[in-house]
Design goal:
This protein folds into two domains: 160 residues, Rossmann fold (3-Layer(aba) Sandwich), CATH 3.40.50; 189 residues, Glycogen Phosphorylase B (Rossmann fold, 3-Layer(aba) Sandwich). Helices cover 38% and strands 15% of the residues. The chain has 13 helices and 14 strands. A six-stranded parallel β-sheet has the order 3-2-5-6-7-8, with helices on both faces. It has a six-stranded parallel β-sheet with strand order 11-10-9-12-13-14, with helices on both faces.
């Protein structure tokens, strides 16, 4: 209890105070990092953002909580929402229960959108009843899990963000593009199943080495697309140096491409890069699944799923799939790497289209321009 209080107190003193009473708006975006994703769909003059990470604190709402001797995150958010009095509350916070148990009201619609590919999904809480009106998920298997927990009406749309950007059918100028899953290690923390950081990270290091060797052998250019973490200072430089230690100096057969932030401009650039690659390769990143849904040739190396406690990192989890398929494998060595890349690159357009269309139905759909979301906010599809 005291730990939570001091954490909340720290957030409050670090945040920026807003004096004005929260405005009445039709649409409330719960949590700010993905707010730009809605600009295409929601009128700016009818939309407001609730900063649940305490980037800003509304002094009026905070004082009301203090007067009522009830200073908790959940109470603050509840009061804030009541002031805004939105018809729609929309969020990408697909793993955070605070959004799930915002009270149900007859004149309010809660929409939860899957944010990223997950290696876990929420579980029922015996003490609190979760409820969401609509859940928009990547695929039927994941959506079903959320439906059982949130009692929501489900729609399978694929990636909301990717759906918002057209597929750029231009010349494939990048030979092989690897999607980084780098993160700064916390060496005091173990991964799932008491796996050490070194064991977990070795899966990426080995794959990058094998891909680089493959490119040198085939005289191809190897590109690495960095992971975007704008909240960490010098993250791109740290990430680039990580790959330099594995592969040697840049421009000797490989190129590092920065992925700076989540702004509309940067995200648009991301999808242009993805769509310009002959093949997109990786382990289990959301961007790799998005590349598949956009019709790009992809190769999944899911060897991490063979490590202790990492089964949920297998291809298409929680959907049960074979360990090897037309563009994925759980095996990793130089031979298996070359074999899978050669196989995917050999598919002609007709055969690849048949393969990816079959897979995307179960794994990552594509609702071009998010027509389902538009129907919900315009027509309020009956539950």
């Amino acid at each position: 209890m005291f730990k939570n209080f001091f954490k909340l107190f720290k957030n409050i003193i670090m945040g920026k105070f807003i004096i004005n009473i929260p405005p009445k708006k039709k649409y409330l975006i719960y949590d700010s990092p993905r707010k730009e994703d809605f600009e295409k769909y929601l009128p700016d003059n009818q939309t407001h953002v609730l900063n649940t990470r305490w980037e800003t604190i509304n002094l009026f709402v905070l004082l009301k909580c203090l007067i009522n001797f009830n200073l908790k995150s959940s109470t603050y958010f509840k009061e804030y929402i009541n002031y805004v009095n939105p018809k729609y509350i929309i969020s990408f916070s697909d793993l955070y229960p605070q959004f799930f148990y915002i009270e149900k009201k007859s004149n309010r619609i809660k929409i939860l959108i899957q944010n990223a590919w997950r290696d876990k999904t929420p579980k029922k809480n015996k003490n609190k009843k979760y409820f969401v009106d609509y859940f928009l998920g990547f695929n039927p298997t994941i959506s079903k899990r959320y439906e059982n927990v949130l009692h929501a009406k489900i729609f399978n749309i694929g990636s909301f963000r990717s759906n918002s950007f057209k597929i750029y059918n231009k010349k494939k100028s990048l030979d092989i593009l690897y999607i980084s899953t780098y993160r700064i290690p916390d060496r005091n923390k173990t991964e799932i199943g008491n796996l050490s950081w070194e064991e977990f990270d070795k899966a990426q290091k080995d794959l990058v080495k094998f891909l680089f060797n493959y490119c040198k052998k085939k005289k191809l250019r190897f590109h690495i697309y960095g992971k975007a973490t704008p909240s960490i200072i010098n993250f791109q430089l740290t990430q680039k140096n990580y790959f330099k230690k594995i592969l040697g100096n840049e421009n000797k057969g490989w190129v590092y491409l920065k992925n700076l932030d989540n702004s509309h401009k940067s995200v648009k650039r991301t999808y242009k890069i993805i769509d310009s690659a002959q093949i997109v390769v990786g382990t289990d990143s959301t961007l790799l699944y998005e590349a598949l849904s956009r019709g790009n040739k992809v190769a999944f190396f899911n060897h991490r799923s063979e490590l202790q406690g990492q089964k949920s990192r297998s291809y298409a989890w929680p959907l049960a799939k074979s360990k090897k398929g037309p563009f994925w494998t759980n095996e990793l060595n130089q031979n298996s790497c070359q074999k899978l890349i050669d196989k995917v690159l050999s598919y002609n357009k007709k055969r690849w289209k048949r393969i990816f269309q079959k897979e995307t139905r179960d794994v990552m759909l594509r609702d071009e321009n998010n027509t389902i979301f538009n129907r919900i906010i315009k027509n309020n599809i009956n539950r």
